[in-house]
Specification:
The complex is a heterodimer. Chain A is α/β, with parallel strands linked by helices. Chain A has helices at about 45-50, 75-80, 90, 100-110, 115-125, 140-155, 170-190, 200-205, 225-230, 230-235, 240-250, 265-275, 290-300; strands at about 5-15, 20-30, 35-40, 65, 70, 80-85, 160-165, 190-195, 210-215, 215-220. The longest helix of chain A is centred in the middle third of the chain and has 18 residues, at about 170-190. Helices cover about 70% and strands about 5% of the residues of chain B. The N and C termini of chain B lie far apart (about 55 Å). Classes of the chains: A alpha/beta, B mainly alpha.
Chain lengths: ~300, ~260
Amino acid sequence: MTKEAVSIRDLNYSYPDGTVALEDINITIEEGERIAIIGQNGAGKTTLFLHLNGTIKSHNNNVVIFGKDIGQMKSKERIEKVGIVFQDPDDQLFMPTIFDDVAFGPINMGLDEDEVERRVRSALATVGLTGFEDRVPHHLSYGQKKRAALAAVLSMEPRILVLDEPTANLDPRNRISLIRLINNLNRNKGTTTIVAMHDVNAVSQLADRIYVLNKRMVADGSPTEIFMDFDLLRENNLDAPDVFRLFNVLSCFGFNCESLPLSIDDAVEVLTKTIEGNGKHIHLHIHEHTHEDLKDIMHRYDHHAEPSK
Amino acid sequence: MEYPEIDRYASLDSPVHRFDPRTKIATFTFLVFSFVFIQEITIALFALFFSILLLLVSKLPIGFVFKRVQVVLIFVLPLLIIMPLTVEGTELFSVFGISATHEGLRYASLIVIRAMAAVILILTMLGSMRFDTTIKALYMLKVPSSLVQMLMFTYRYIFVIIDEFLSMSRAMSAKGFNPGMNMYSLSIIGNMVGMLIVKSYERGERVYQAMISRGYTGNPKTRTAFAMRRTDYVLSAILVGFAILVHININTVMM
């Protein structure tokens, strides 16, 4: 039986200067789900995240985590439930050494020394930073800082892991290992993961369900549903993954498959399956409508074009 | 621009490095207080000599320490000119009717020597242990938590702020800005500093949010494992003994 991990009802938030940041937010996330929240710059992703573990307090008791109002929780309980990894690792690594930083959460949770030690060790091992305990943050590379910041949250062993732009500014190897790490946590420990990202090419690797945020929750659905909705993407200044667009183009040439792939890995699978099920070859062709269809498809993805009817 | 890494040579090995951090801070502070109350130039010189001796024992590169002593000297050296001209007493010489006094020169020298002795001591102390160790030792010595946290965050973020400053100044020189001593340059640099303050303020807010979301309640705790050994007791006895000795001497000299 799955439990409701996060439930937010009618959440509103304005900055102190009166600018509206969040409006009538309603979300429900089941335990163990992989969620992505996408939206343009300034859509309110970070502000929403700060509500999830009570860093910003909502006064209407409308943020409920595992059935309990976050505003009523003690700090220890709240950090056990929700861990947030912020975008800039320099904001997050504030203690003098990596050990102190990763131990910061567990110590605040009141764990005994052995347990703190165990958690720091295991969190550092998970992110591949074993042996970095005594290093100081300003001697680490950006990728290492990013992983250390993740370890500092993993050591609290939160049941919900929230990551703000986890793959931003990372080189390919660090990006892939981070994505793998997050997915392993979800698969092996049943951690609910919520990520905010801009990188639509990576989003399907990290999420089964996507929320589109633009001060309000504009849409909610599977990655395919969201990326098929051209008007939605354009209105919210979002892109579809390149692979997804390519297969949209291929369909104009007569390629038919059950579901359009969202990543290269999906694409390999879809191509293999389609070609095998089609007498081991596929047939692409140009017919009278092809050019028009192509134009139409490309037009739909063009951010500078007028909305289609 | 160089990073102000005070603990660059903390990994060296010397009796000063091995000294227990808490005791080191306590005894060195005691020595500093003792030195700044010295009234005799000869004894002050002796104290300065002692500080330099400790510095040599610590094996810290002399250049590393003296580069930092220079900064203090900028503030203290002008006294050598100002004080002989302002303190009243027996005339040493006079130029254009302004007379320099013997007493003034004596006081000024005393201040300069004491300041150098104290600064060398402090730098030897800070330079011979990792900064995080210093922070932990201060916690254990029951220094008020907010003071220690201010020190800790200043040291942690000074590197980040320097990086931010450097990237701003690179961006400016990429757009053809050459700093000079004119109004235009100064106003640009003023803008830059202002920007840096705004950035730091905003970062402060984000850091605080990150702290709250990991259960910060105003009192960060860390793990510490310091243990006193016999050498620590011996070394602190020597240092405290010296700190007292310089003052006993004054009394005997006076009698």
